[in-house]
Amino acid sequence: MRGLLLACALCLLPALASAGEPGAHEKRAKEHAAADRYDLAVEAFAQQYAETGEPHLLLYIAECHRTLYRKLALENHLREARRYYVLYLEKEQEGERATRARALLSVVEVELRRLEVAARPPPAPVLTPAPAPRSPLVPPAPSAPAEPVVRRWWPWLAIGAAVISGATLTVLLLRSDGGGVDLPRGDFPMMRF
Q: Which of 28, 67, 69, 102 lies 20 to 30 Å from 108, alpha-carbon distance?
């Protein structure tokens, strides 16, 4: 039994020793990314992930797709970046990388919503029918008859003011107690006051 455990430990020792070191594909992917060849970096990171299944590689793939979107403005790269961020967060929920992945995922989703809104067609304009052109042979429709003057308020106000003013003036001039208006007396040729 001890021999079996020792054999298993010896078989796993190389795998445990290289767990912290990047693999050949990951090294090559980082070289491609440093040279701005992100499409090749995505392929190399994907090969390394297929071999090892290490979740941090999903984050690298997502970052490469996001960078490709920024460079090429192709929406499919943004969608792939979202997909890989989600895959990474399904495998790793805790830690600094997961926090960063959540923040970047929210940025990607906002950008995708902005693209969806921009891609929608504008609303159709509301069309109102134009008025029919008038023919010179057809007379215009008669307008409503004007209201007669006697049915309006302002002429009656003027008449009432004139009547009251005249009555007041007559009463003042014809008062017998002498409280009326004193007119100057004097000799004016041909008129006497």
A: 28
- Per-residue CA distances from 165 to 51, 158, 162, 178, 182 (Å): 113, 11, 5, 20, 19
List the one residue out of 22, 103, 18, 27 whose CA is nearest residue 62.
Answer: 103
How far apart CA 172 and CA 165 sit, in angstroms, is 11
Q: What's the rounded Cα separation, in Å, for the pair 124 and 130?
A: 18
Number of domains present in the structure of the chain: 1
Domain that holds residue 102: 21-119
In a domain, 63, yes or no: yes
* Lookup result for tokens 């134009």: 130
**For residue range 24-56, what is the model confidence (pLDDT) as tens digits?**
878 888 887 888 888 899 899 999 899 899 998
Q: Is the pTM of this model over 0.90?
A: no
* CA distance linking residue 163 with residue 143, whole number of Å: 36
Q: How many helices and strands, by DSSP H and E, does the chain display?
A: 7, 2
Place of tokens 């491609």: 32
CATH of the domain at 84: 1.25.40.10
